[in-house]
Specification:
Structural class: alpha+beta
Strand order of the largest sheet: 2-1-3-5-4-6-7
Strand content: 25-35%
Distance between the termini: 65 Å
CATH topology of the largest domain: Rossmann fold
CATH class of the largest domain: Alpha Beta
Radius of gyration: 22 Å
Largest sheet: 7 strands, mixed
Number of helices: 7
Shape: elongated
Number of strands: 15
CATH superfamily of the largest domain: S-adenosyl-l-methionine hydroxide adenosyltransferase, N-terminal
Number of domains: 2
Length: about 280
């Protein structure tokens, strides 16, 4: 057993919640190593958390993933553990874990976290990360609890799903949307570089771009220094097309956010100009 737990949440670092969860883990086994993926996921933003985990799972060591973005804490949503080829993912059944599962080959089994021996007695139902998720993660990672001992096995088809919105591609346009805005104001879209290449775009082409109702000329760049100035597009570190502003914040300039619509004309401006 790889005695590593990778931990992500929307708790922030101000009120001690992260420290308490890590304390519970190390009270179960002081030798467990905890990797903090992020605790800056926007509050209650399951979409953002799902995307973050999908990207991170490819680079963190195999073992146990503990992920908590849980606006439904204390409601009928189940605390669950999902077995994959990568390892075991523990968190709420609200769609937070499914993209990460899909990235590593899909869920194989899922179990409810019901074993009362590993639930910390508690008043109220508002801190399942402390009272349920973390003791189960620690018990499994330390080899003290088998997955089959967690609780009832669940039907995989009943698990909640978050799905990345699909692009709409026609002869004339590629329509997508912004999935998230990062710390620098770069705007990742659901448009892939493969979709641009299928329309015969290449890096260096000048592109007609529309973000919501703003039309602009952009360039597909190989780095964040756009030689045309202004807004550029780039294949980001996660393999998707992002909109950026050289040495600036594209989201503020374009007044865009998660869910903002993005349209790319299917023929590059470079090619149209060369035909004249």
């Amino acid at each position: 057993m790889n005695k590593i737990i990778s931990f992500a949440s929307d708790f922030g670092l101000n009120d001690g919640s992260v420290g308490v969860v890590k304390g519970v883990i190390n009270r179960v086994d002081p030798d467990l190593k905890i990797i903090d993926i992020s605790h800056g996921i926007p509050a209650q933003n399951i979409k953002y958390g799902s995307l973050l985990l999908m990207r991170a799972i490819q680079y963190i060591p195999q073992g146990v993933l503990l992920a908590v973005v849980d606006p439904g804490v204390g409601s009928e949503r189940k605390p669950i553990a999902i077995k994959t080829d990568w390892g075991v993912m523990i968190g709420p059944d609200n769609g937070l874990l499914n993209l990460a599962c899909a990235t590593v080959g899909g869920a194989q089994q899922a179990f409810a976290l019901e074993n009362e021996n590993w639930i910390i007695p508690h008043e109220g139902e508002t801190f399942h990360a402390r009272d349920i998720f973390s003791p189960f993660a620690a018990a499994y990672a330390s080899g003290q609890l088998k997955l089959e001992e967690f609780g009832q096995e669940l039907n995989l088809e009943d698990l909640k799903q978050y799905l990345i919105p699909l692009t709409d591609i026609t002869e004339k346009e590629i329509k997508g949307e912004i999935l998230y805005v990062d710390h620098f104001g770069n705007c990742q879209t659901n448009i892939s570089p493969e979709e641009l290449k299928e329309k015969n775009f290449k890096v260096g082409d000048t592109i007609s771009l529309k973000v919501e109702n703003q039309e602009l000329t952009s360039k597909w760049c190989s780095n964040y220094q756009n030689t045309l100035g202004g807004v550029g597009v780039i294949t980001d570190s996660w393999g998707m097309i992002s909109i950026f502003l050289s040495n600036g914040d594209a989201s503020k300039l374009l007044n865009c956010k998660d869910g903002s619509k993005v349209t790319i004309k299917a023929e590059s401006l470079t090619k149209r100009l060369n035909l004249k």
